[in-house]
Design brief:
This protein has 34 helices and 2 strands. It is mostly helical. It has a two-stranded antiparallel ribbon with strand order 1-2. It binds one DNA strand through strand 1, helix 5, helix 7, helix 10 and helix 12. This is Pentatricopeptide repeat-containing protein, mitochondrial.
Length: about 600
DNA sequence: ATAGGGTTAG
């Protein structure tokens, strides 16, 4: 399958090269703010770091008369942009203490500041100041709060707040508020609700604009539903809203991920006809698409092309190329790209390091990965959750269990907070090396703290127990899933079925298959392969024959592991070959 | 004249 896709992407290079890209140098608007009596304060020019900001603030509060509120506002905003959230809070407190007047602009900045700190609770606690000072709430304040709720994944709270604002007519939502809610929903997988809001807007007074359409189109693209995305594209065109570079980038990304290179080309020429030229994101999307298909040379050529046209690659462009080399196992080439990037004056970030560490781990060169891990802090960076998870997986893969545990301990003491993937990696690792007690002790700790209750984690534990000969314990956990409100998915059933098959309990396995069908969980290719291996293992060849006919009818086929198993069985007992029905063209693969 | 909130790539 990959081979076909690769050949489809070949023609993209000359095609892209045929573009002529115009770049106009952007001129930063001159912005200057001054106090009431001609004291010019240009916040943007004066404030380059936290010290500058605090010094300027101290100067400002001594001026008579005080600089105007927009100057204070601009200063706070500049500090927020520099992510000095704690400092913003203390300066705001200082303003209150000095009785410096505040207004809605100052307040909404401080509210936003709390939201960006992921302290939406503190943001809400500022609302009484509005009431006390007689400053009315407005759509910006509420929009900021909604965004803050989404940022902390409080989706229900965000939607409830939005609905209340509308129902109680507290404020009229504008395009931006709709956009915030729709983006929050779409990024968390609620594409249907996002679409409903679009339809609601079309009925109401606030008509959808380009931002709104872009959110909806991107949501469909992320769902790999390009037909729906393109139908929304046509709707917006019909309403006289021309798609822009963002729209095109979303669509191109969606098409690249589906390997639909012909359509990518069509879209690229359409956008150039509209005088919309590919930017660094467009090129990074194309480069990523090529890399994911193993065509890193073509990706490099697209990169040379973009540079020729005056579009400079950024850290993300280099990242996708590095990851492309790592995917092909050429981590040394990735390392060279990393060095070239540094030579060009682009500082690596934690992504760059995680990509390389992953590359080395996949090649089982864990020592090099560990060395890079050490370099991270030397550069003033911090390993994030992905870095830690990657290195732990790498350590388990080479059997360095003690070191993996040390890394986990380091996370617990210094952060980042382990997530669900971390726990899955640890549990899988323990079970893989037969450390059942270790695994169960971690699992029980997680249960007590109610940290992780997701089906994927339970799948790991059930599978681990089955593989370590503890079928009864696994089955008991499986039976209790509904008590903790978890629904088994296809993988849960597969690991249970495999557990039964390993023990020769084929009737129990079949009853589990009936159960999953009854609970409207459709068996997948893995389910069928697990059964075939079970029949083979216990020499139930005639049952296997019946089963394989059903399998072929469903369009399923052997995977590599079953095929290998079968070859071994046939070598021992050639007559098994006669028991295999011919699997015709119904096969999916 | 001035200031605050929304969309796309690893």
């Amino acid at each position: 399958m990959t081979r076909i896709l690769v050949s489809k992407s070949n023609a993209i290079i000359p095609f892209i090269s045929s573009f002529y890209i115009l770049r106009s140098s952007s001129i930063r608007p001159y912005s200057s703010l001054k106090g009431k009596v001609g004291v010019r304060i240009n916040v943007e020019n004066e404030v380059k770091c936290l010290d500058d900001a605090v010094n300027l603030f101290n100067r400002m509060v001594r001026m008579k008369p005080l600089p105007s509120l927009p100057v204070f506002c601009k200063l706070l905003k500049t500090m927020i942009n520099m992510k000095h959230y704690y400092a913003v809070i203390s300066l705001f407190r200082e303003m209150r203490k000095l009785d410096i007047p505040i207004n809605e602009f100052i307040l909404s900045n401080v509210i936003n500041n709390y939201c960006l700190m992921h302290r939406v609770d503190c943001a809400f606690s500022l609302l009484p100041i509005h009431l006390k000072s007689g400053i009315p709430f407005n759509v910006v304040t509420f929009n900021t709060l909604i965004r803050g709720l989404f940022a902390e994944n409080k989706v229900t709270d965000a939607v409830v707040l939005f609905k209340n604002l509308v129902r109680e007519k507290i404020c009229e939502p504008n395009e931006i508020m709709y956009g915030t809610v729709m983006n929050g929903l779409s990024k968390r997988g609620h594409t249907e609700k996002t679409l409903s809001l679009l339809r609601l807007m079309e009925q109401g007074n606030t008509k959808p604009n380009i931002y709104i359409y872009n959110v909806v189109i991107d949501a469909f693209c992320k769902d790999r539903n390009l037909d729906a995305a393109i139908s929304i594209l046509n709707e917006m065109k019909q309403k006289g809203i021309p798609p822009d570079i963002v729209t095109h980038n979303s669509l191109i990304d969606g098409l690249c991920k589906l390997g639909q290179w012909e359509k990518v080309k069509t879209l690229l020429s359409e956008m150039v006809n509209l005088n919309i030229y590919p930017n660094v994101r467009t090129f990074s999307i194309l480069i990523d698409g090529l890399c994911k298909e193993g065509k890193v040379e073509d990706a490099e050529e697209v990169m040379r092309h973009m540079i020729e046209k005056g579009v400079e690659p950024n850290i993300i462009t280099y990242s996708v190329i590095m990851d492309g080399y790592c995917l092909r196992g050429q981590v040394d080439r990735a390392r060279r790209v990393f060095d070239i990037m540094i030579d060009k004056g682009i500082e690596p970030n934690i992504f760059s390091y995680s990509i390389l560490i992953n590359g080395y781990c996949k090649k089982k060169e864990v020592a090099k990965a560990m060395q890079l891990l050490g370099e991270i802090s030397q550069r003033g960076l911090k390993p994030d959750i992905v870095t830690y998870n990657t290195i732990q997986q790498g350590l388990f893969d080479v059997g360095r269990i003690g070191d993996a545990k040390k890394i986990y301990a380091e996370m617990l003491s210094r952060g980042p907070v382990p997530n669900s993937s971390t726990h899955c990696i640890l549990l899988k690792g323990y079970f893989r090396y037969g450390l059942v007690e270790e695994a169960m002790s971690l699992f029980n700790k997680l249960k007590i703290n109610r940290e992780d209750t997701n089906i994927e984690l339970y799948n790991v534990v059930i599978n681990g127990l089955c593989k370590n000969g503890k079928l009864d314990k696994a089955h008991a956990i499986f039976e209790k899933l509904s008590l903790i409100g978890l629904l088994p998915d296809v993988r849960t059933y597969n690991v249970m079925i495999n557990g039964f098959c390993l023990q020769g309990l084929l009737d129990e396995a079949k009853s589990m298959l009936r159960k999953m069908k009854k609970n409207s969980c459709l068996p997948d290719n893995v389910t069928y392969n697990v059964f075939v291996q079970g029949f083979l293992r216990w020499s139930k060849f005639s049952e296997m024959r019946t089963f394989m006919v059903e399998m072929a009818d469903g369009g399923f086929s052997f995977d590599a592991s079953t095929a290998g198993f079968l070859v071994n069985v046939v070598r021992e007992n050639p007559s098994v070959l006669d028991m295999i029905p011919e699997l015709h063209s119904k096969n999916k693969y």
